[in-house]
Amino acid sequence: AQKITQTQPGMFVQEKEAVTLDCTYDTSDPSYGLFWYKQPSSGEMIFLIYQGSYDQQNATEGRYSLNFQKARKSANLVISASQLGDSAMYFCAMRVTGTASKLTFGTGTRLQVTL
Amino acid sequence: EAGVAQSPRYKIIEKRQSVAFWCNPISGHATLYWYQQILGQGPKLLIQFQNNGVVDDSQLPKDRFSAERLKGVDSTLKIQPAKLEDSAVYLCASSLAGGRETPKNIQYFGAGTRLSVL
Fold first, then answer.
1. Cβ contacts of residue A102 below 8 Å, gap of 6+?
2. Taking the CA atoms of chain A, what radius of gyration do you get in angstroms?
3. Among A38, A80, A97, B27, which residue is least crowded by beta carbons within 10 Å?
4. Which chain B residues in 57-86 lie under 8 Å from chain A, judged by CB atoms?
């Protein structure tokens, strides 16, 4: 079975600073994908970034980057130059190849960006 | 490109009543998912459709929940009768394909329906 652990229930960061949101995962399958989603107060889950288990380089998407450490089974999200609009819940999720496309989610981290 | 549409956005009912949610996926997306998100938790998959066939409904409480996807496009999720513990946000998502051959199969979510059962 797959498991995602997000140990930070809440984080604060000042505007324009960088912040790292932690995510560790557990799976015995060698082929898997890791996803980060943002959920603002409006409720919609917004896809941010994807990392495949066989990808050689860490994924980047604009101000988002994924610090993928396969041996440690961690996939931390780094947000650079935080903006007030980044305040939201952030979920890490995993999907294993071969299963129906079920995403296994963590419990999320609430990020608050302050002035 | 239009995103995943869901309605209603909010619903308040009393226990033992019935309720239905509607979802219209992104055009051309073959796979549709319904998730339940209880406050303070991540979303949990209830059911997955590939076109109009069910792929995974292992976590759907079938004694009270039902879902259909007629013609492989829109979908409805029904709860009958509702219980207090069904209070949650119900999220619909869609993706291009089932993606069994690769883990990269991005799911796009709607804004959800927030259900309160009193």
1. A95, B45, B48, B56
2. 14
3. B27
4. none
Digit-coded pLDDT (tens) for B51-76: 888 988 999 999 999 999 988 899 99
Best probe of the A interface among B26, B51, B104, B115, by most A CBs < 10 A, is B104
Residue B102 has pLDDT above 70, yes or no: no
Lookup result for tokens 């995602």: A4
CB A21 within 8 A of CB A109: yes
Instruction: Confirm if A64 and A49 have CB atoms less than 8 A apart.
Output: yes
Q: What is the CB neighbour count within 10 angstroms for residue A53? A: 19
Q: Rounded to 5, what percent of chain A is helix, strand, coil?
A: 5, 50, 45
CA distance B14 to A72: 47
For A76, A86, A108, B95, the CA distances from A113, given in Å and listed in that order, are: 18, 7, 16, 31
- Residues of B whose CB is below 8 A from A52: 103-104
A16-28 per-position pLDDT tens digit: 999 999 999 999 8
Say how many CA atoms lie within 13 Å of B94 toward its Cβ.
23
Phi, psi of A106 (to 5 degrees): -85, -175
Q: List A residues 65-94 in contact with B (Cβ-Cβ < 8 A).
A: 91, 93
